[in-house]
Each structure stands twice: as C-alpha cells, then as structure tokens.
From TrEMBL:
Pfam family, one: DUF4283
Designated name of the protein: DUF4283 domain-containing protein
DUF4283 domain span: 2-79
Organism: Iris pallida
Superkingdom per UniProt: Eukaryota
Length: 129
C-alpha cells in the first residue's frame, strides 16, 4: 500500500512534508521519500491511514497543493494518472442500506469504494448517504 503525492508546483523539502504529516494525526507511522522534484512516495503502515489519505483528493503542504494517487509499478512521472477518487451521494436511500457492506456493494459500480463519511456512519443526515 503506497501512495504518490504529486505537487502542482515544486515539491517542498522532505523534512517539510514529514513535519506536515506529523500534524495530520495519523494512527500509525508513515514513511516518506522523494521521487523527483514534483513527487513524494507515501507509505502508511496502517490501512486506515492509507484510506484516510487516499479518500481526500488533495492536500496542501507548506502552501503547495498536493494531489494523492495510488502508487503502481507502472508509475511514470511524465504521465498524468487516468484514475481519480470521486465522491458519490445517494439521495433518499432506504435506511437499511446505510450499512457499510451494502453501501460498498452499491458503490462498486463506480470502482473500488474507499470510505464512508461520518454523517452516513452516524446516520446524522438520513436524506443522503
């Protein structure tokens, strides 16, 4: 489980990125390394941290926007990734379907489900999942 952080402009120093990640409150350690002048490799130890980082499309580190992509063996820094996370809302979904397993089965039509938001988990906004 590894991620790539792609910076729109110039990648901040690895020390700066490490500092920013230390402030995120991740549940476990995360290895970070420079790939090139625009990319950083991010390897969280825990799946929950991987999903948290992956579920948010962009982050800002040292005032530099960073987009997150899943790392693959075919990574080429000169190519743009064809994959991107999307947020899906289900309006007026029956309350029986607010279960994580049900939502993940429904969402597989769009790709690999990553995360369910807190409002859906808590059933605090029953008009939308």
């Amino acid at each position: 489980m590894a991620l790539l952080g792609k910076f729109s402009l110039k990648r901040p120093s690895i020390e700066g990125i490490r500092h920013a990640f230390s402030l995120l409150g991740l549940a476990g350690p995360c290895r970070l390394g420079a790939v090139d002048h625009k990319h950083a490799l991010i390897v969280p130890k825990l799946e929950s941290d991987f999903l948290r980082l992956r579920s948010r499309f962009s982050w800002s580190i040292a005032k530099s926007p960073m987009r997150i992509f899943r790392w693959s063996i075919n990574f080429d820094p000169s190519e743009e990734s064809p994959l991107a996370p999307v947020w899906v809302n289900y309006l007026n979904l029956r309350h029986q379907l607010f279960d994580k397993a049900a939502l993940f089965r429904i969402s597989k039509v769009f790709g690999v489900p990553l995360k369910i938001d807190k409002a859906t988990t808590d059933f605090s906004r029953p008009s939308v999942a």
